[in-house]
Every structure is written in C-alpha cells, then in structure tokens.
Amino acid sequence: MRVVRTVRADVPPERIGHTQTHEHVLSKLASVRQGSMLDSAEAIRLDNYYEVRRHHSVFDLTVNDVEDAVAELGEYAAHGGSAMVDATSIGIGRDPEGLLAVAERTGVHIVMGAGYYQREFHPAGLDDRSRADLAAEMSRDVTEGVGERRIRSGVIGEIGLSWPVHPVERRVLEAACDAQRDTGAALLVHPGRHADAPLDAMRIIRAVGGDQDRVIMSHIDRTLFDLPAMVELAETGCYLEFDLFGQESSYYPFADIDMPNDATRVDHLVALRGRGFGRRLLVAQDICSKTHLRRYGGEGYAHLIRNVLPLMRRKGLDDAAIGELTVANPREALAFAA
C-alpha cells in the first residue's frame, strides 16, 4: 500500500488535496549571516518592513513560533489547503514536536523532511561522519521516527547544496540517495545558486544509483530562466518545483539573481506543460521568514490558492491542469510503499 507519510500518521494519497511541496512551518535560517542580510533583531514595523523584506534580518528569518504557525496554517486550511511539506532539515531549526502540535491543531497534513541543509548550516561533527552513517540516520528518520513520540519524516530533504558543491554536501547527497533507495521516499534537493547546479546534482544522483524519477529539484524559479534549460533538466526525469511564488523582488538578498514574478512563473509552467512535462511539475511558496506570514504583513501560505490559481486560469490553465499541479502531482511525488 502506498501512503503519504505525515507527522501524525500515514495517509492514503487520495485523502490529500491541495498540497504545497516546499514550505517552512518552523525554521531558523538566521543562525548564519547570508548575503546582504541585516544584522538586526528588531521587530518588524511599518517603518522598517521594506528593508527587512528586501534584506531579511535575524528576527525575520526566525520562524519558530508554534502559535504563529497554527494561525497561519489555519488560514491555509480555511482556503482549501490540505497538506504541505515542511522542508526544514537538520541544522535550520527542524522541530518534529512543534510540527506535530501544529498538525494536530490545524488538521493540515504536514510532511517532515530529513537530512541536512547546505554547508553553512552543517552542525558540528558532520564532517567526520561516513556516508553509511548518514544514510542510516536518514532512513531511520523515515522508517522509525525521532524523539519520544517517534515522529517520522515523509521526504528526504531538503538536502542543501552550494555552488560549487562542497565535499561534505556531496557525501550527504550520496547518503540521501542511499536512504531514498532504502525507504522509497522522495528526495528533495536544494541546488546551488547557479544555472549549472541542478544538472550537476542530477549527475551526482545518477552516478550513485539514485532514483531520478523520485527527485524533486527545488527552486527552479531562482536557478533556471529559459525554457531550453528547464526542458533539459526535465528530461532527466526529476520533478521541477517552482516554489517561490509570492517572492517578487528584483533584489534577491542571497545572490545576484534577477527573480521572476508570479506571472512569469505561470508562463513557464504553461510552456513546460506544452512540452509534455505536465506530470513533472510542482508548486509552492518556500515561506521561511516572518515577512512572508500574514501576521507580519506578508502573503501567507494561502497566496497560491487566493491569488495564483486565478492567475493560472487567466493564462489558460483549466481546473484539470490546476488539479494536476496542486493535487495529483504532489500525491504521486510524495507517496511511497509503507
């Protein structure tokens, strides 16, 4: 029997509705100073909102309040949100007990990640661990769970890569492929911020025998910007995840990247469907800061439902196509044999 493994229980895929496959319900990305990030722990106010949203800050990148999460996911559920992947891996504030509490109080099916994020966030001691040891840990996260309540992961990732890939990041990715083969869970990859990074990651995965059809390549919309490059990646068999909906700044704080807006993202989805890759596309918002939350003036997790789905319809995607993107594809990507 195939299931979607959530922090509360295994769920038959047909019980999962609208799903966003890359969010952060509880996370802490402020543990490492990145790019032009503001060195400030000041609360968000009307007079500093723009600067914080543009550059992020220590306060902004700490999203670990269960009460905030309950309120935000409650709104997501009220607008028809059924499930989401919490892509928070070890080192960036993964909180299994917190996720379970949020899921129990909101009814949202939360899929927890396993493994490690990119080099800057590696915890002490990771350098000395073997590939076999790391693979065993990730497999246990999926099959046995963590903590006293044995809360289980339902996806391996997000596995973070820099550019170029650091040797320890490569070891973690190779171990993640081993765990993917062992458990059947999908592998969620955060590629480095370079146009060559997604294909490079897929080459590593292929070299160690990873299941390319069970790979979700994140952040396509901040990494690839033309259709031929997207098609080349899709031909490897992986899922292409456009997961930054709602983030429409020309001033990407972590690298010199010209970000697309939501309309351009939809245009790319339409074009890829036209090339026959409709069943290999996923969508999300990658909410990971307070300024993305409704409480702090942001778009909230329901932005895709409230604003992007009407935009998709305006650009020619009918209800069947939207259902494929938001329900059928996530079900297929996340489900595996129990």
Automatic annotation (TrEMBL):
Record carries keyword Hydrolase: yes
Keywords noted in UniProt: Hydrolase, Metal-binding
Pfam families: PTE
Signal peptide start and end residues: none
Keyword Hydrolase part of the UniProt annotation: yes
Residue spans crossing the bilayer: none
Sequence similarity: Belongs to the metallo-dependent hydrolases superfamily. Phosphotriesterase family.
Protein name per the record: Phosphotriesterase
Organism: Pseudonocardia eucalypti
